[in-house]
Amino acid sequence: MFERFLPGGPCPLGASWDGRGVNFALFSAAASKVELCLYSEDRHESQRIPVAESTGEVWHVYVPGMLPGQLYGYRISGPYEPSRGHRFNPSKVLLDPYAREVGADLRWDDSLFGYPIGHPEQDLALDSRDDAAFVPLARVAHTVFPWGDDRLPEVPWHKTIIYEAHVKGLTQRHPKIPPELRGTYLGLAHDEMIRYFLELGITAIELLPVHHHVDERVLVERGLSNYWGYNTIAFFAPDSRYAARDCSLTHTEQFQSMVRSLHLHGIEVILDVVYNHTAEGNHLGPTLSFRGIDNLSYYRLSPKDLRSYVDFTGTGNTLNMRHPRVLQLIMDSLRYWVTEMHVDGFRFDLASSLAREFFEVDRLSAFFDLIHQDPVLSRVKLIAEPWDLGPGGYQVGNFPVGWAEWNGKYRDCIRRFWKGEGGLVSEVATRLAGSSDLYEASGKRPYASINFLTCHDGFTLQDLVAYEQKHNEANGEGNRDGTDANWSWNCGVEGPTEDPGVLALRTKQKLNFWLTLLTSQGVPMIRAGDELCQSQSGNNNAYCQDNELSWLNWELTKEKLFFIQLVQKLIWLRRKEPVFHRRHFFQGRSIHGTEIRDVVWLGPSGKPMDDSEWTGPSVKCLGVRLSGDLTGVVDEFGSPVDGSSMLVLFNAAETPVPFVLPKRREGLRWERILDTTRPTLAPEPLDAGLEYTLEGHSSVLFRGERPAEPLPPGEFLEPIAGE
User: Fold this and answer.
1) CA distances to 250, 260, 345, 420, 638 from 189, in Å
2) Biggest alpha carbon distance in the chain?
């Protein structure tokens, strides 16, 4: 028992240990009374301490002699008037929004709700049952981690290759990871995994949410869970589910150890963060934290009915980004993960909701202004999922300079093209070249486009070519959940098969997607498991499947090993050849007066495409030549133009197309690197002017031979095809 308390101070918010005791500070503008409740490891309330001091709407108290590790929560009194936006209920223990660790997780019970479940007045009635035995509890944390000389790898945007992964799903089935580390932060940083990342060639891991989250009650009652974790309740706490048990390191220290190990090998860590809503849901949801601390401040409430929540996210609530204390919470959380946890960037879930100052999406909202002015956050990678579910929420291309975006238009266009839709070659060329229509006018670079064809949300690449319809029956929602949009090409056979012809067609189509993604300007994002041919049996919304359906299968067959080797080859070729990761958009002009265009779009004749080929409704074939071989030459921006010239041919039609390989400087040939129809063929030099058979639904990658000696600036190197 602690017998002496001091006023403490309002800064910093949360629980802060200074070596002699702990300062507690909590914001609540409308509370009338705040109590700090201390708990034993078995959730027994050992002491209740009045928090009597309030400065600038921050309640604070200092407890001398308290040590890190103490479990705590708050009880807060005030009006329970849902129609006026107030939902205070001192019977409910509340999680500190600034909790650095969650020491006791939630267990579902009716007492977690601020109103009696089943009451005819619903949430207008007050429930007085104590929920301390079931609510998530914070733990006082203090970590002085031995970072040593750790520093952010700071991989340039244009050289970045992102690998989107789930902490647990990545290693839960890995036979070479020790059983006690599988599915954990430490398992992800195991030598075996780091070796795999380095061999694959990725430069950054984007982790699905690792902020502590809540599994929705409806899922738990079905025997499921929120596997993806997009249901945050604590924006500072690493999720305890991914911490190894019986480990001397705290949850925080395990996460930090993971980051340090990845940084040591030059791999960046990007977090998928969910600041748009919380796990408390709509007006009928539980009272776990924000709702009971200051509902009117933390949430966007309907101006016409303060009992109801504005919902731009489809989750029941939206955080109130217009309130300065909510903005502070998010900014403090982001800075914490950079300064204390050393992460390299963030991907913001449903980011359009963060830009809604009032109702419309405002690209210059206070949130973005704060980010750009912040000396810490303005230096890390910032990625927006540029849409939400509210009106006008689809904002691809509209986020400020300094932000990259998940390019949904890239995904949709490339999928439609490879399904065989005609009349798309003009847009396909734009997407391959970095989507200048979306980003160039606002001063952005090609790397503002995060190019992806699959991600955690939707079909795996294997299922994209194997299923025409979703199969989400295991989710318990009658297969009504998940998107119906597929744009796949599945050879007319659904699901698993042993037919060698069908398997060959699927492999070819997967390689078409890989080749397209890794030769496009912008930043490629790879869904973890696609290189392993992972299937989810047609489930395109496996958010609740914390089982072998979602976990990566590391039992590699001969065929899977061969496929991984092809993916590795393409990734490393992209990294080696500068023409695939340009810092600037193509100019389509001569360099230093030399008629060498940096990009030429080709028709089957081997000459630049004409108007009929650009606009023809049935055209499904195009080629692109990217000019390199300019050693010693710099472009108008001062960037070196080096590396080989590359040629990529795409044919989404069902029938073969004879494609003339474009001219090169006399004596120089094209080397075929990969033909997706015949991926086992060894590289082979072919003469320019040769007619190459581009099979149906296939693509081919060629590399130009380099001149024996580099030519001086201004000297003719390669003629423009057809001129």
Assistant:
1) 16, 9, 18, 41, 38
2) 90
pLDDT in tens, 58-91: 999 999 999 999 999 999 999 999 999 999 999 9
Beta bridge partners of 646: 626, 703
Residues 6+ apart with CB under 8 A from 500: none
Query: What residue type is 103 in one-letter code?
Result: G
Among 119-123, 173-177, 197-201, 358-362, which stretch is predicted with the lowest mean pLDDT? Answer: 358-362
Helix H or strand E encompassing 462: helix 461-464
**pLDDT above 70 as % of the chain:** 92
359 pLDDT tier (thresholds 50, 70, 90):
low
- State the CB neighbour count (10 A cutoff) for residue 192: 15
pLDDT tens-digit map of 175-224: 999 999 999 999 999 999 999 999 999 999 999 999 999 999 999 999 99
Among all chains, which residue has been given the structure tokens 């030429």?
A: 600
Pick from 170-184, 459-473, 476-490: least confident: 476-490
Closest C-alpha to 411, from 387, 376, 389? 387
Distance (Å, whole) CA 25 – CA 28: 10
Structure tokens at 1: 């028992």
Q: Chain-centre distance of CA 78, in angstroms? A: 39
Query: Alpha-carbon distance 465 to 478, whole Å?
Result: 23
Name the residue among 43, 495, 87, 32 with its Cα closest to residue 308: 87
Helix or strand or coil: residue 497? coil
Is residue 629 very low, low, confident or very high in pLDDT (cuts 50, 70, 90)? low
SS3 (DSSP) at 413: helix
The whole-angstrom separation of Cα 50 and Cα 74 is 10
Q: Give the three-class secondary structure for 196.
A: helix
H helices of 213-365, in order, are 217-221, 251-264, 290-298, 324-339
Averaged over 95-112, what is the pLDDT?
A: 97
Question: Running DSSP on this structure, what letter comes out for residue 553?
Answer: -
Q: Look at residue 721 in the predicted model and tell me its pLDDT.
A: 46
- What domains lie within the chain, and their CATH numbers? 1-400 (3.20.20.80), 407-585 (3.20.20.80), 590-704 (2.60.40.1180)
In the three-class reduction of DSSP (H, G, I as helix; E, B as strand; rest coil), residue 142 is classed as coil
CA–CA gap between residue 489 and residue 500 (Å, rounded): 17
On whether the CB atoms of residues 518 and 570 are closer than 8 A, the answer is yes
For 75-92, the three-class secondary structure string (H helix, E strand, C coil) is EEECCEEHHHCEECCCCC
| Number of residues that this document lists for the chain | 723
Residues 272, 344, 349, 718: which is the catalytic one? 349
What pTM was estimated for this model as a whole?
A: 0.94
Q: Would you give the DSSP letter of residue 448?
A: G
Place of tokens 């095809």: 721
18 is catalytic: no
3-state SS, residue 549: coil
Which is the catalytic residue, given 35, 206, 239, 385? 385
Chain CA centroid to CA 616, Å: 36
The neighbour count for residue 314, using CB atoms within 10 Å, is 10
- Across residues 110-114, what is the average pLDDT? 98
Q: For residues 707 and 562, what is the distance between their CA atoms, to the nearest angstrom?
A: 32
Verify whether residue 642 is a known catalytic residue: no
The CA distances from residue 279 to 79, 275, 541, 709, in Å, are: 22, 11, 19, 63
* 551-554 contacts, C-beta under 8 A, 24 or more apart: 551/168, 551/169, 551/172, 551/173, 552/169, 552/170, 552/171, 552/172, 552/173, 552/174, 552/528, 553/173, 554/173, 554/174, 554/175, 554/176
Residue 500, H or E segment: helix 500-518
Rg (CA), the chain: 28
To the nearest whole number, what is the mean pLDDT of the chain?
Answer: 91
408 Cβ contact list (under 8 Å, min separation 6)? 386, 387, 394, 396
